[in-house]
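Students often ask why we bother predicting the structure of a whole assembly rather than each chain alone. The short answer is interfaces. A chain on its own may look different once its partners are present, and contacts between molecules only exist in the joint model. In this exercise we take two input lines together and write out one structure for the complete complex. Read the inputs first and try to guess which parts will touch.
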Amino acid sequence: MPFQLPPFAHRVFRYRSTRITSEGLQFLIFTLAIGIAAINTGNNLFYLLLSMMLSLILVSGIAAEYCLRRLELRRHVPDLLFLNTPVTSVLAIKNLKPRLTSFSLTLCDVSADQTIFPNVEIHSLPPGASRLLSYPLTPTRRGRWRLSGIRISTEFPFGLFTKRAFYPMEDTLVVCPEIRPIYEGLLRGLFAAGYEQTVHRRGHGSDLYNLRLYQAGDDSRSIHWPTTARTSQLTIRETEAEAQRRAIIHVPTSVPASHDAPFERAVSLAASLVQHLIHHGYSIQLRVGSDRSSFGQGEAHRLELLRMLALCQRDAPREESMRQDEWPDGHSDLEGDGTAIVVQAWCDSGDGKTEFPRVLIDGELIPGAAHAT
Amino acid sequence: MPLNQALHLTSMLLASASFIGLTLGAGLPEWLAALTGATLIAVLLRNIGVKSVEQFATQMPVSTIGWNLIVLGGFLGFWIDLLWVSGELLPAGLHFLMVLMVIKLFNLRLRRDYLHLYAISLVAILASGSLTTDLWFVPIFSVYLLAGVWTLLLFQLTKSSEVGGNVGVALSMRQESHEGHDRVSPRLFWTANGLALGAFLITVVIFFTIPRVSAGIYQKGFGENLRTSGFSDTVNLGAIGSIKRDPSVVMRVELPKSPRHDARPLYIRGVSFDRYDGKVWTNQLSYRRSLIEESSGTFAFRRKRVASGVELGEAIQQKILLEPLDTPVLFAAPFIERVSGAFPSLFFDGTGAVYLPFPSSSRIEYTVLSRSNTLVPADLGPEPGPYPEWVLRQYLQLSFQSDRINTLAGEVTQRQRNPYEKAAAIQTHLTRNYRYSLDAPLAAQDQPLEEFLFSRKTGYCEHYATAMVIMLRTLGIPARLVTGFLATEWNDYGNYYVVRQQDAHAWVEVYLPHSGWIGMDPTPTEDNPGAGGPVWRVLAPLVDNIKLQWNRLFVQYSAADQLAVVRELKAEGVSVRNKALDSMTALFGTFMAVLSGILTPDMSQVRIGLLGEVIGFAMMSLVVLFWLARKRPWVTWRFWRKACSNELVIAHLYRRMRTYLAGQGLSRSAAIAPLELVKITQARWREAHAAVASITELYCRTRFGHIPLTQKDMKHAEDQLRGLLELRRPSQ
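Now the answer. The structure tokens for the assembled complex follow.
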């Protein structure tokens, strides 16, 4: 059975740390000098001054400890995070102490790998009071992002030491790939491929599909003013989908370790495509390595696909994984018609040293498509 | 008050405390003290916002280079001071320190400058501590500590403000408006004072517990020694008169084993003299030998002072705190038997005086056991017996002859039969027929003793004692003059004698064949009303006692005192244990008696005590454990604390609810009971009924049922109240 520290010792040694400040260093040097003078001379008034200095150090530790004790923290982070995109995190802090104010608190988020996120300062937190603190949080890595807790530090009362307390607060966030604007050539390629799959249904086209009464939430720009004027009722003009398009986005994950950066770009490009295509009414299926989603549309489907992309991992190219990554047999695997988009970070047969992913639409390489990402 | 302004003020207070301490301790030159004081006042006025001072400061543009040049000038001045003016490192260094403080006070712009000022003030208060041990250091130190705590606190708080305001927005963000937080709030005020009080108490604790190590190579005393007179080997007649008007405290004498009501005047012996040449007393037996050290720090006489079989006199135990004097004489009541103190060695001369190796430059504390000689009845008979030869040789010397004195001595003692009665007659004659006066410059006279005895008939102790010694010697009675102090000032607050320079005294020791040296004092009582007004006469003993305690507890506190405290605590512990064991033995006495009958006699003799201890301890432990397990006081305590906290919170919420309902036209009367209020709400304001009922139920449960609330309950109550506060009662 592993040895476990008792709760008090655990709190002291695991969740507390102290660092000396530059002023504190000078203070300690003076204390040492006075101590030497006291021993050297035997002068009791020197001992009195030495005691004063030591008591200030002691009081400093006790007061700092009381500042950091009995604080209640709650963190609120948005559900969806994107790589390198700052989001506003909100921290609620409450002083549970019945009488003592906490002064000069500095708070920061600590991730599992001990990365520190921006400091937030509070001048004072009276007993029983609470504060809402907001600060930008910028994820720097795609995937699961584990925040281990909040670190609170204070230099109160004398600025001699920085005492830190760690409040464990596990939070696992999913960081989606970065969404970037898509290269115009790629958009053109998608546009051309989509014309072949028109379906008569409501969509984002320009031809009239239907007129109906206005409902709350409808875009006011879609109001059909002539009919509205004639009938004296707000009427919405629905347009016919120009093309009901289906697309399969395939991201091979068999990529050697040397192509980690291109793989991340490929994932980012795939996420950007998902975002763009779903926004334009595409029904999308995503294939990441051996994983595949169903065809779907809408916000929930978008989030599901982004989550898949957020959590996908690069695999070292092995025969089995490469076989899984291969496009099954041309277009025969497609459930009905649709555009096949392959975002490759690495090509076994091609130039393996490329820094940017390659995009193939229906087997046709879109030159320079990835440069926009 | 804004934090920055408060920081400035406390910094000034810190600097002022150290400056005053240094001025009182070191006696800075007037010009430097005035300059520093004026600078402090000017900077303080500028901080308060006096415009004229601000204008003056703005019209004095000195660049950083200029200030550096001024510091260099000050450093040059330090060398000049060291080499030509003061000639010593310490005064020159202190003068330079004050110059630096003045420069820094004029140049307080950056936070670094403040740190420099604090460092200077710390060195100044340190120097002050090295130069004094007086009581005034206590208030200075206290003010310094208070100002120090405030200054460091404000320095830290203003640092946070600056960091939050200036440095990297990306790295550090202040989430509050500075408005309202950049001022000294009441909460901050009490926090700072509480910290100062805590620091003060911890300082005292650390001071007494920190181990005293005297391993120094630079140990010196404090200030100059008191100048005394009359305690060297050669003393002019009237020398003591020069110090008889000086009220400086020379020593304090405690009598640990004497009750308070026994505080009669105490003679404290210094040295004695055997030869008088008409103007000068000399100690011809001044050859000093080492006292034998019985144990560490304890020295004792091992000489046979009186004949065997003679009853020993009264033993007087004294604890003496002696100020630094310019004489190595160790004062104590006559006659010293044993001395204990932190002395490397002690010496004594042929007259029984005890000496330090050299005059002490600091206060010393020592304990003395003295024993005076008692008057033996054999000396009161007509034939007291022969004197030892060494006494006759040494203490009957008469370097000058005076027929008038011989005649006077004969006339005064013509009816007495033995030496003691004669001595007593002379003492009575001098006491009754002569007047005490310090205005008697007899030293300039050719024959000062005759002038005293026959012309002026006024003088002070030396004249009386000299006259008696000479008169006794003319009668063939060995006698000698003794100088020391006559302690009469008893301090009721501390139960000790305060001995001052003005208590310096001279008296006579007469040698009697069987009794030995007997002290006699021919000086009449001095009519001294005492200095100061009536209030001061009441307060003076109190102040002096505080000074004594300060000296004893702080200035003189040593490793030996720490050991004594440890021994005392240990002894107390043993005493408590013994008492407990006694109680246990009495408690289990019957049981032990039965047990001793079962056991063999030797077993019961040897082990019974130990067995009683073990069983008693075990049973006591069991009782305590049983009580703890049954009562579980920690649970009660935690529960009580939690319950109290919950009760307060829910009561607060309930009060807010009632206030709000009263504002909405419900329950204006405080006489409405909680459940009654719920019914009223149900009838008159149905929307609010659920919230009111819920809060009231929780309130009643905690307030009257003493059932603790959970966090969930508390949150629920808060939510209900929040919801209630958002409701508005429709107008009727």
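Check your guess against this: The domain at 68-176 of chain A is CATH 2.60.40.10 (Immunoglobulin-like).
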